[in-house]
Amino acid sequence: MTMRVKEVADLIGISTRTxxxxxxxxxxxxxxTTSAGYRLYSEENLKTLxxxxxxxxxxxxxxxxxEIIFSPSFNQQEALLLQLxxxxxxxxxxxxxxxxxxKTIKHMSGxxxxxxxxxxxxxxxxxxxxxxxxxxxxxxxxxxxLNEKIKIMSKAEQNSLSKRWVxxxxxxxLFCDYSAESQDVQAIIKxxxxxxxxxxxxxxxxxxxxxxLLYMEDERFTKxxxxxxxxxxxxxxxxxxxxxxxxx
Amino acid sequence: MTMRVKEVADLIGISTRTxxxxxxxxxxxxxxTTSAGYRLYSEENLKTLxxxxxxxxxxxxxxxxxEIIFSPSFNQQEALLLQLxxxxxxxxxxxxxxxxxxKTIKHMSGxxxxxxxxxxxxxxxxxxxxxxxxxxxxxxxxxxxLNEKIKIMSKAEQNSLSKRWVxxxxxxxLFCDYSAESQDVQAIIKxxxxxxxxxxxxxxxxxxxxxxLLYMEDERFTKxxxxxxxxxxxxxxxxxxxxxxxxx
DNA sequence: TATAAGGTATTACGCTGCGTTAAAGTCAAT
DNA sequence: ATTGACTTTAACGCAGCGTAATACCTTATA
Lengths: 248, 248
Known about the structure:
The structure is a homodimer. The first copy, chain A, is mostly helical. Chain A folds into 2 domains: 5-74, Multidrug-efflux Transporter Regulator, Chain: A, Domain 2, CATH 1.10.1660; 114-247, Orthogonal Bundle (Globin-like). Chain A has helices spanning 5-12, 16-24, 43-57, 62-70, 76-113, 116-119, 128-138, 141-152, 155-173, 183-199, 205-217, 219-226, 232-247; strands at residues 32-33, 39-40. A two-stranded antiparallel sheet of chain A has the order 1-2. In chain A, strand 1 and strand 2 (39-40) form a beta hairpin. In chain A, helix 3 packs across helix 4, helix 9 (155-173) packs antiparallel against helix 10 (183-199) and helix 10 crosses helix 13 (232-247). The longest helix of chain A is centred in the middle third of the chain and has 38 residues, at 76-113. Chain A is rod-shaped, with a radius of gyration of 29 Å. Chains A and B meet through helix 3 and helix 5 of A and helix 3 and helix 5 of B. The first copy, chain A, binds a DNA duplex through helix 2. Chains A, B: This is MerR family transcriptional regulator.
C-alpha cells in the first residue's frame, strides 16, 4: 500500500510541491524510493503527514513541527492531546470573534431599526421599581431630568446623541482589559462626563459617582453595555469612581 | 483621539512594522501625519484595521483584503455578515478536527484499557435480540462462528487482530468521501474480505454481502465504525455490495 | 515495440508578509 | 541639553511554498 506523490497529494488535499518541500527540508521523507527516484509513501508516512498538517493548521512553523515530530519523546498520544487542547482554544477564540461580529451586526441593524424609545432602552432609567431605589439613594433629580430631556429631544437629536454615546462605549470597549486608572480609560470617562453634562444636566461629582453605582446594579443597563465588551460595566463604574476621586 | 503607531500596535496586538507595511502597500494609511512625518491613526482607522485583521484571520491575502476594503460597494454590514459566515464555517471545520482528534485519542487509550471482551464490542454480534434477526436472514453460521472464534482466540491474537481491523477502518476512513466503486475503496474492501477469511471463516460472497447489510442495521456496529468517519458504515456496506457484484 | 500521455525529479527563480537591523530624526521630561 | 522612548525610511532576510523549465519514467494503446 505505497503511494506516489500525486496520490498522496490528491488524497490529503495538498500539492506535490509541498511534499517535495517537506522532503527537501527533511520534515517528511518517503519511506522508500524506486530506483528511478520516485517517492513512495507508506501508511506510516500518511499518519505523520496528518500530524504535520494538524500542527501546521495550529500555526506552528515547519521548523518547530520538525522538532516536535522527531523528538525522541514524541508520542502520538501526547501530541493528540496537545492538539486537542489547542484546537479547543482556537475554537474558543473563534467563538469570541463570532460573538463580537454578531453583536456588532445586531447593533448596526439595530441602530437602523430601533425606535427612539428603544434606542434608549437600558439607559433610560425611568420605569419600574428600580426607579424608586434610585430616587431613594440619589434623589430624583438626575433620573427625572434625564427622562425629561429624552422625551423632549427631537428625533434628529436623539439619533446623533445615540451615536455619540455608542461611540463612547465602543471606544471604552477597546480598553476593556485596561485598568480603570489608566490614562486612556480616564480620558474616555471624562468624555462621558462632559457628554452627560452637555446633553442632560450638570452632574455634580457625587451624582456622577452615584450614576456609576447605578450602572452596576441595573440589569437593563448592564445588558446593554456588556454588548460592547465583557466587563465593560464594571470597568466603567470603577473608572467613574476613580475619575471622581481624581477630580476632588 | 488620534493614536501613534505604537499605541495602535499595542492596543490591537500587532507590530509597528505591520502598520508600516500596511501603509506602504496602501492597505491602511493613517488619516493624518504630523509635520515630522509621524503617523496619526483615527478611530475610523482602527475600525478599518479590525476589518483587515478579521479578513486576515480568515486567510485572505492582503491584496484581496485591499480590494475588498476599497471596493466602492464595500459595506461594513455586508462585510460583517460575510465574516460571520466564514467564521462559522471555520468553527465547524475546527469542530470536525476536534471530534476527529478526540475520537482518535479515545480509541488509542481505549485500545490500551479495553478488555478483550470490550475490544470487540460493536463488532461482536452475539447478544441480544438482534442476533435473532441475523440468524433469520443469514443463517446462524457466520455470526456464531465469529463469536466462537473470538472467544477461543488468545489475548495476543486479539490484540493484533484488533489492530489490524482498526487499521483497515482507519484506512477506509481516509476515503470517506470517495465513491464505493472507487479503486481505492475497493482495494480496502478486498483487504477486509481477506482479513475476515483469514481470521474467522470463509465467507461466501453472499454471506459477505449479507454482512454489509448487517453493518448498516446494527447500532452497536455503526456506532463503533462511525468513530472513524461519518458515513463510513454506509460507504462500507455499499462498497461491500459493489465488491460482491464485481466478483461474480 | 514504438509512441503518446501523463507522472515524476531536480533546479531555480518569484512572491507574500512581514522580522530585523541600521541610521537618523522627534518629543517630553528631567 | 541630555537622556530615553518613540518615530521615520531603507534595506536585507526569511518561510513556505507557487510556478516554470527541463529531462526522465511508466503505462496504455496502436
